[in-house]
């Protein structure tokens, strides 16, 4: 049987059995209509029609699969879900309106009042707020621990702990968690192990292979890769995803078909983009490490990084985000940032365009001084999300920042 000329068919996943993530990024989850288009079609429609009243009844009753309404069934969104599920090696994916909606949907579907969460301290700032302010209102308590400190994880777990939540590598200090160890801890306590895989994408790291139960993405970052759309996705086993999907259907934090289509296009180039991000980031990390006015560089690709070998065992590349401390404090960090000319000053990341930000006053600005200290977010810390421009040009621009520090330190003498 061939799928190639049939109309309105999902191209069967079995044709892609055993293929690599690079191929799945281009091919998985595609649907082809009677027009036999080569690129993925887009279905910008809120609802769908039925051949008869009986068919409508069968669809609504769940006896017949098929499209009903785009809050919970849209072919473009399903194509995106199929592709990312294949890439992560998960049974099913549920797409959401944003990365935060993916985290919220997971928690609302799988936690209840009285449950306890243990979360790594360095997570995305808004994830912190979601757990600490909003889930707490509904009786879900969260304890924050150091990402790489297994003693702290073990001590934080309680009988009512239902979820361990991490990001690895962490933002912005690039700490790397031992996913197998955390997965064992979660299993021993019948808790879910959830990994936000935004920084690595399935091209560099597939947490399900290291024992994660659920993988979460902000599709806004690398999956899109060109800074166009906000979206998210949750990947995991059918049983858990059925619950997440049920929440999405009832609560409605749905991905739009237009955004799903943009993400499908983004995924097609994700493998080659990730390699370019990794190559540039490693070269810049090595280069920054040699500069006089740079105190310390944080990037798991550096051999001096404390979890370098762990990162190597879990990731096929070290990612596109690095951070470093300049000599001095906030003044010096800001002077460095303001002296660059090409690199975008923005807190966004995962874009083909290189971006620079000052975590202490932007992404992590809402943390208390004590929490900033605990997370290592000092005033002289700068984060770069390395894009795919020519690395020599990135060095030229960053050298302007270094020169600004040079002239200021001379001025102080
Ligand atoms: C951006 C981000 C999120 C939130 O995603 P949105 O799409 O902005 O809602 C979650 N986790 C990480 C690691 C992120 O970088």
Automatic annotation (TrEMBL):
One of its GO terms (molecular function) is pyridoxal phosphate binding. It is an enzyme of class 2 (transferase). Its EC number is 2.5.1.-. Pfam families: Cys_Met_Meta_PP (PF01053). CDD domains: CGS_like (cd00614). Its cofactor is pyridoxal 5'-phosphate. One of its GO terms (cellular component) is cytoplasm. It comes from the Bacteria. Keywords: Amino-acid biosynthesis, Methionine biosynthesis, Pyridoxal phosphate, Transferase. InterPro entries: Cys/Met-Metab_PyrdxlP-dep_enz (IPR000277), Cys_met_metab_PP (IPR054542), O-succ-hSer_sulfhydrylase (IPR006234), PyrdxlP-dep_Trfase (IPR015424), PyrdxlP-dep_Trfase_major (IPR015421), PyrdxlP-dep_Trfase_small (IPR015422). Belongs to the trans-sulfuration enzymes family. MetZ subfamily. Catalyzes the formation of L-homocysteine from O-succinyl-L-homoserine (OSHS) and hydrogen sulfide. Homotetramer. This is O-succinylhomoserine sulfhydrylase. It comes from Marinobacter nitratireducens. The gene is metZ.
